[in-house]
Structures are given as C-alpha cells and as structure tokens.
Amino acid sequence: MAAKKKSTKPRERTERRFVPRSTASPMVVYVVGAIGAIVLGAGAFGQFGNAIRKTQIDPVSWAPWVLAVGAVIVAIAIWIGTSTDAAIRVGVAGIAEERNPTKRIPWWRVEDVSGDGENIIVHGKDEAGVDTTIRVSRRGLPDAIPWVLREARDRAPEQVEVAADVIKKIGKPSKEVGEVVPCPPLQVVGRHCADSDKVISYEPDARVCPRCERVYHKDHTPKSCVCGASLADVKSEESA
C-alpha cells in the first residue's frame, strides 16, 4: 500500500490585535459625559422646544450658549476617555502599530527589544527598511506587553535585552485577551535571499523561516536560520 502524502495545507499566519485603553478613570469620564449630556439637552430644549410644546414662543436667548457649552463638555469627555496610544498587532509577521500609515517591524528586522515593565520598546526597520521604534505602554496596552515580550523571545531571542526580573514581573500572556486576526499576505517575490543575497524572482523558489520569516532561495537554504531556527523541514519543500 502506498504511503499517504503529507498535507500541503499552508500554515495559518495570524496575529493578535490589541486596542488601547483610556488612561483616565472611567468614573470621571462618565460624570463629565453625563453633565455634558444634561447641559446639551437643556440647551436643545430651550432652542427647539417649540416643536414639543406646540407653541409659538420665541427660543430662549441664552439657549445657543448652553448648547455650545454642552457640546464642549461632551467633547472633553470623549477626549479624556480616548487613549493616545495606537492599536498594536503582534504575531508571526512581526509587531505593528496602527497609525496612519501602519508601521510594521518584521521579526527578522528587529534590532533590539528593551523595557522596564512599564514600557516595552521595539526598535528596528520596517518593511521598507526605514528606522522604526514602537513603544507599548502598560497604562494603555497592559494586555499587549506579555504577548510582545513572548513573541520577541520566541522569534528574535538574540535581540531581547529585557532583564530577567522584569520578564518575571510581566508574566505569561493570556489567550483570553486580544483579537486573533489574519496577518497580511507574505510577499517574497523581489526579496533577497538572506544567505546568498540572490533576488527571489518566483514564489516557488522561496523558503521562509517559520520563526522569524527570513526568506531564502531554495538553492541557498542553510540547515538553520540566522535566528537559530531549524530549516530542515522547509529546505526540502516542493512547491504545490
């Protein structure tokens, strides 16, 4: 009986997305928002109450000012209830900061990972080769810090410069936090082989490190990646 062929199903590339929290007290936000809503409602009634009262009384003279004050108070509540941190994505494709535009540092381009427990700072080059620094704060993104540190230690261990006591303090990440989302498609055509610098002209010629996603040409794939991961499995891959 012929041996069964191994499944050629590609591995799923995912990452976790973390939305920042407000650093202000929720109670303060609720109180300021409630006051703003009350003032805004009073101003609206004074200005447009005729439609409810069904009378032809002129609007109260100070109603526009009350409306304006209410709108300002509501805007303040929205402002203090919104974090200045950007959403963070971390996974097999690297670490990304959702600003305009999104900045992403692949793991193979991370140069150093440092921090004191309150902040984790990842420095390296983005996908275009531009120097990039991404800061993850405990105040705005407490759930993201353990995941960033874990992924960095797994995929770029030589670049992690966080002290052992800080790592212990941060603790293990929880699978219950963040939103698991698919990574952007991995582009290999046009990339240079990490071993020979040969340009990848065809996608089937590429071999990708499963840990840091460095790309190698199929004819120049070493036994292990620069990051230390074994390439024994990917070295012998055949294009589907």
Word description of this protein:
This protein is an alpha+beta fold. The protein has helices spanning about 25-50, 50-55, 65-80, 145-155, 165-170, 230-235, and strands at about 15-20, 90, 95, 105, 110-115, 120-125, 130-135, 180, 205-210, 215. The strands form 3 sheets. Strands 4-3-2-1-8 form a 5-stranded antiparallel sheet, covered by helices on one side. Strands 5-6-7 form a 3-stranded antiparallel sheet, covered by helices on one side. Strand 9 and strand 10 form a beta hairpin. Helix 1 (about 25-50) runs antiparallel to helix 3. It is elongated and about 85 Å long.
Strand content: 15-25%
The major β-sheet equals: 5 strands, antiparallel
Give the end-to-end Cα distance, rounded to a whole number of Å: 23 Å
What topology, given as strand order, has the largest sheet? Answer: 4-3-2-1-8
- Give the CA-based shape: elongated
The helix content is 25-40%
Output the helix-strand order.
Answer: EHHHEEEEEEHHEEEH
Write down how many β-strands occur, each being a DSSP E stretch of 2 or more residues.
Answer: 10
Provide a count of the helices: 6
Gyration radius from CA atoms, angstroms: 26 Å
Content-based structural category: alpha+beta
